[in-house]
Amino acid sequence: MCGIIGYIGSENAVPIIVEGLKKLEYRGYDSAGIAIYGKDGFDIVKQKGRLAALDQKLKENPRSATMGIGHTRWATHGEPSDINSHPHVGSKSKIAVVHNGIIENYKQLKERLEQKGAKFASQTDSEVVAQLAEYYYRGDLLETVIRVSNALEGSYALGIMSLDDPDVLIAIKKDNPLIIGIAANGNFIASDVPAVLKHTNQIYYLEDKEITVLKKDSVAFFSIDKEPISKMPETITWSADSAEKGGYPHFMLKEIMEQPKVVRDTINSAVNGANKAIIDEINIIAYDKIVITACGSAYNAGVVAKYVFERLCRFSSIEVELASEFRYKDAVIDDKTFVILISQSGETADTIAAMREAKSKGASTLAIVNVVGSTLAKEADFCIYTQAGPEIAVATTKAFSTQLILLYLLAIRFASKMGKLANADQNELLMEIEALPEKIASIFLHVDDIQKYASVCVGYKSIFFIGRNIDYAIALEGSLKLKEISYIHSEAYAGGELKHGTISLLEENTLVVALANCERLYLKSMSNIEQVVSRKANVLLISSQEETQADKRLKFIKLPEGNELFSPSLSVIILQLFSYYVAANKGLDIDKPRNLAKSVTVE
Question: Which of 4, 135, 222, 274 is most deeply buried (CB count within 10 A of its CB)?
Answer without folding.
Answer: 4
